[in-house]
Specification:
The protein is mainly alpha-helical. The protein has eight helices and three strands; from the N terminus they run βααααααββαα. α1 crosses α4 and α1 packs antiparallel against α8.
């Protein structure tokens, strides 16, 4: 079993990969989703009601929000591992034992947890994923100015 620690640098790199794949200008409208059906941010696309035409036309991958996209579409974590964790922090999803995908167990450092939470909160405020990345970089653990 390989153990991969998601540290500060890897967390920022994963956010950069998400921006490159879905677009730094992509905006996940968590506030709009909350107003539409009281759902707020969802990690998984399948947990957004099919009646939400905007979400279903703009989100075509398994992961819906920034962290859901990183977990499912970049790291390859099965949706079943995340399914019961909607509304929980990423730290709670990983827990103390991490998440296993194939021969790799992903473990989350405290710094990565803080960076992911900073980016996710910025996204949930209506920022683009590029703005969320910049905010995470400026966060306490991101190291940017």
């Amino acid at each position: 079993m390989n153990i991969t620690m998601i540290d500060r640098d890897m967390a920022l790199d994963l956010i950069e990969q998400a921006c490159a794949r879905r677009g730094a200008g992509f905006t996940y409208y968590a506030a709009r989703l909350d107003e539409a059906y009281g759902g707020g941010c969802q990690y998984l696309r399948r947990n957004i009601p099919a009646a939400d035409e905007w979400a279903w036309s703009h989100i075509t991958d398994g992961g819906a929000c920034l962290l859901g996209f990183i977990l499912v579409d970049i790291l390859g974590i099965p949706e079943s591992e995340i399914e019961g964790h909607e509304g929980q922090s990423i730290g709670m999803i990983f827990g103390s034992n991490g998440i296993t995908v194939g021969d790799t167990r992903y473990v989350l450092s405290d710094q990565a947890d803080a960076i992911f939470n900073a980016a996710q909160s910025k996204q949930d405020d209506g920022a683009t994923w590029g703005e969320a990345l910049a905010y995470a970089n400026r966060s306490r653990f991101g190291g940017g100015a």
